[in-house]
Amino acid sequence: MKDNGFDGIDIDWEFPTAAQKDIYTALLVELRKQLDAQGSADGRSYLLTIAAPAGPSNYENIDLAQIHPQLDWINLETYDFTAVSSKSTNFVAPLFPAKDDPAPPTHNVDAAVKAYLAAGVPADKVVVGVRFIGNGWRGVPNINNGLYQNNTGPAKGTWDKPGSAPSGNFFYQDIEENYIGSYSEFWEPDAKVPWLYNAATGIMISYEDPLSVGDKADYVVANNLGGAMIWELAADDPQHSLLDTIAVKFALRKSTPRNVLPQQLASQAESIVNNFEQTDYQHHEIIDVDNGIYDCDCNGFVGFVLKGMAPEHYAMVPKEKNQPRPRAFEYYALFAGLNQQSRAGWCRIDSLQEARRGDVMAWRFSEIEPGEDTGHVLFVAERPRMLDSGDFAVRVYDSAATPHFDDTRGNGEGQFPTGVGSGFINFQVDASGAPIAFQFGPSDPTFHTFPIAIGRVERLQV
């Protein structure tokens, strides 16, 4: 990786068995640890990603709740729901199930994405796979336009040599040039995918076209997912019809490049929380990355991550002359002093429901005494969840003296009851949706009302 200047490592293990579940988790934990150590030495961060299965028989052998904290994102292989070896024709990558589809209800893009989200994978870590290669079958009877029918095996594909076994793989360029127009074209409105059939040749082809990949791109945007990955780019036509359709859909979401800085901050904080060797809450900061030691308060933890990942943004936070780093009330002062349209490195987020992974939240106490706590500062780990009470629970990454709800620090009696960790803090909001009070954790029976502000790092103007 270093010798070739790569950005990180992608693991494509297809696929771990039930007996390999713990081995796979351990592999990713160790890789994350090694990449973080190398990144610390190099003054940068390295990516760790995986290619992941969309079928439940495979993803049930992966501990998604344990592995996603180690990963920057997951390339979900949301295709091949029907392989060329299938005895019945069907769709390669239906977005949703068709109402008459004989396949299990799990065999579609939406079901796979929802399974990963239900396992706790953050939406912005889920990347939807889009296959530019179609599957074709031969010996398909002229019933239901070739859909859901028996077949005699894969059809001769785009690159199959004479005398070789048919692969059934059709590049989109080949489909566009040699099949569309001479084959009958059909569209499944529920699944949002096309197919081709020729009764004379008995060949049925399931594939993606600009309309279907556009629907998948819309789905990614609507569900705030991490993006799309392509298998494979070489299958597109010379005009890049499929790729450009996806790119245009994503470009319409924002006129500027995606701001990935908050994600990078959250990933770094998450990695520390999941891989430290020693942590304790204390105002005298001792951080030793090589040995995994993070003995610090909330200011030290947030400041360490910001200084390493976004040093120019960190320098914008005001700091007292006699203090080694900014304190919680100074983060609050910075965010509260911004207007919502500020783009000079930081912007203010007014509504709690608009908070996103990697945002920084801070509050200040009414009275600030020398040498005492001034408030609290933390990273938002995932978007807020509304509780039945109408309050909101927000998972955070921070360093704390007492645990939050559902906290990695346990109930305060574990090996590391204080220091860096992750848990839920409950918040109340006013009529505008702004946070006005918090409940820190199980040991805190009431909500406390203090000034609260949320900031988000933005791309610096060049």
Please report the number of helical segments.
Answer: 11
Q: Roughly how much helix do the residues carry, as a percent range?
A: 10-25%
- The end-to-end distance, rounded to whole angstroms, is 30 Å
Percent strand equals 15-25%
- List the uncertain runs: none
Question: How is the biggest beta sheet arranged?
Answer: 9 strands, antiparallel
Quickly count the domains: 2
Radius of gyration: 26 Å
Q: What is the overall shape? A: elongated
Structure class? alpha+beta
The total of beta strands comes to: 23
Name the assembly state.
single chain
Q: Mean pLDDT, nearest integer? A: 92
Task: Give an overview in words.
By secondary structure, the protein is α+β, with helices and mostly antiparallel strands. The chain folds into two domains: 72-253, Chitinase A, domain 3, CATH 3.10.50; 262-457. The protein contains eleven helices and 23 strands. It has helices at residues 21-42, 56-59, 64-67, 109-118, 172-178, 210-222, 241-253, 261-275, 298-309, 311-315, 328-336; strands at 8-11, 47-53, 73-77, 126-131, 133-138, 153-154, 169-171, 184-188, 193-198, 203-206, 227-231, 278-280, 286-288, 293-295, 346-349, 360-364, 375-380, 385-386, 392-400, 419-429, 435-439, 448-449, 452-457. Strands 15, 16, 17, 18, 19, 20, 21, 22 and 23 form a nine-stranded antiparallel beta sheet that branches. Strands 5, 6, 7, 8, 9 and 10 form a six-stranded antiparallel beta sheet that branches. A hairpin with a 5-residue loop joins strand 18 (385-386) and strand 19. Helix 6 runs parallel beside helix 7 (241-253) and helix 8 (261-275) packs across helix 9 (298-309). The longest helix is centred in the first third of the chain and has 22 residues, at 21-42. The two termini are 30 Å apart.
